[in-house]
Design a protein that fits this description.
alpha+beta, three-stranded antiparallel beta sheet, single chain, 3 strands, flat
């Protein structure tokens, strides 16, 4: 697998445990491979499709809430549900732009022309035009954006400057 940052090869340098809450409310622990880029030394984690970077619930749980915020059975507290909706509101348009950029860079055909225009369509609808709206649409959205190193994280908001 090529490195998302520079496209060079990567080497396995170990593993780490990653906790994940499932739709049932049960917490599972997965062993995730850690990879180092042989060229630039950046460290990456190999995540399966059911994990979203920096999120602690399965992607299908998050997807259900984003698709239907008022009618779901996800065992998460209101603040978690609210943060997912705000996260999507903040990044949905960015993800549309990322996917269109990836499609243009890879010379893919059939890019809907109205995706970037100022229309009344929501980011969710526009993402559906790009990755489909069938189950697992969030995973189909996340994978290419992460793999081309366009994924933006907000984890640093919780890190202290410490000094």
């Amino acid at each position: 697998m090529p490195s998302p940052c520079c496209g060079k090869s990567m080497s396995v340098i170990g593993t780490r445990d990653r906790k994940l809450k499932e739709r049932s409310g049960e917490t599972r622990v997965y062993n995730i491979r850690r990879l180092r880029c042989d060229n630039c030394g950046s460290i990456h984690h190999e995540l399966p499709d059911f994990l979203v970077p920096y999120k602690r619930y399965e992607s299908n749980c998050i997807e259900m809430v984003l698709s239907n915020p008022t009618n779901h059975d996800i065992p998460a507290d209101e603040s978690t549900l609210f943060s997912w909706l705000e996260w999507f509101k903040s990044f949905g348009d960015y993800w549309v732009g990322c996917l269109v950029s990836i499609m243009l860079q890879t010379n893919q055909e059939n890019i809907p022309l109205n995706l970037m225009s100022a229309t009344s369509e929501t980011a969710l609808h526009r993402l559906g035009q790009l990755v489909g709206d069938a189950p697992r649409w969030l995973a189909r959205n996340v994978r290419p954006i992460v793999n081309i190193n366009f994924w933006v994280h907000t984890r640093s908001a919780f890190l202290s400057g410490g000094g």
